[in-house]
TrEMBL record:
This is Crp/Fnr family transcriptional regulator. Residues 30-110 form the Cyclic nucleotide-binding domain. It comes from the Bacteria.
Amino acid sequence: MGEQLENNITAHLNLTKHEVKAFCNLFEPKKIKKKSFLLREGEVCRFEGFVVKGLFRVFHIDQNGFEQILYFAVENWWITDIDSFINEIPSQLFIEALEDSDVLLISKKDKEFAYSNLPGIEKLFRIMTQKTHVALQRRMIDNLSKTAEVRYIEFAERYPRLIQRLSNIHIAAYLGITNVFLSNIRKKIALKNN
């Protein structure tokens, strides 16, 4: 499992082998069964996770009981509730495995140790945080300025393999629309393509 994490790190930054190994040794492996939760609302998030195998959804349930999916995490992606993790406050999010999954988890204490003792690691997370901010900003702009149909088409084009692993219900919750509305969008697209 550690080899995938090592490859992910070296893809972002050129660190010494010693730094990479020392950092990877701070992670604990964990297996998560499909439909099991890595984090539930109200718990304090004590980890940042790297997905080795599987698929997760990170979501919130609004006051009307509707799920709002913030993002999905597949192989080589990172998962956490960053607000809960950094501020050590109860999470507003759920992190659920949609498939049997393997993750590597690092605690806040071990991450802080890495920042202090492995200088390149802080730069690594700064780069990853910047990429996350860019993706979130683009998603916010898309949600404010594009129709659901355009958002669906772009999601399908951007993540063709991911979309095959997701149910319509999960895709609809990610797009902020109902499952029925998503079905109508798919029918409309199918008619255009015939």
